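S.,

Sequence below, as promised.
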Amino acid sequence: MDCLEFRRLLGSEPRVTDPAARAHLESCPRCQDAYARAQALEARIAGALAIAVPEGLADRVLLAQLTEARQRRAKGFRYGWIALAAAAALVVAVGLVVRRPGAIGQALPDLVIAHVNGEERGAMDRRAPVPSADVDRAFADRGVHLASVPEGVSYVHKCPVGGYPTVHMVMPYDDKPVAVIYVTRYRAPGVTNFERGAWEGREVPIADGTLVMVGPSAGGFDRIEHEWRDALQGSAQTAAGSP
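The prediction came back faster than expected:
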């Protein structure tokens, strides 16, 4: 695959899952820059769609529509039912907006597993450590200040997972890959361990976000969680961050 074919594919499929395209991406700096810009645009769009809806908005909208419906009953039974139907449709739409920014019906662990198994599968093979400055910069671009940078990060990239803005890392433990993904703008309700096929995982709320770890075993999870608690504890997220 050449650069022109890759750019055409990137325009229609920003995540680029085609094996030939991924192989070209690994060896072409110019296409790597184009891919990074495409991912930044995707993350910016996802962030724009993650609109915070005021608490109780659905109830207020429904009450207003029901009140209007009652007032219209004097003008005719038919118009009242039309108003009620419109109110129900609006409440459903509001409910969809209130959902997590991920795919409808998909929990965060499922989105992370799909991400690790999909476009970022090759990252799990990385072993050489990346500069700590690269890790610090990725978090800063997401609006998160790190008190320290844990050692052993062999891959770091700002990735959208579903509709969540994240920092995606790999931290090998006992020569086994562990995907470590910090999700900004969403805090899980509690610590959850999970299994998906050959993968074991853990979801941990830390600071203003959620740390998700995925690997062939949970052996390194305790150490990695402790290190990232130290790094993120007391860190301050900006309101918007950078997509």
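Helices lie at 3-12, 19-27, 29-49, 57-72, 77-98, 108-117, 132-141, 221-232.

Coffee later?
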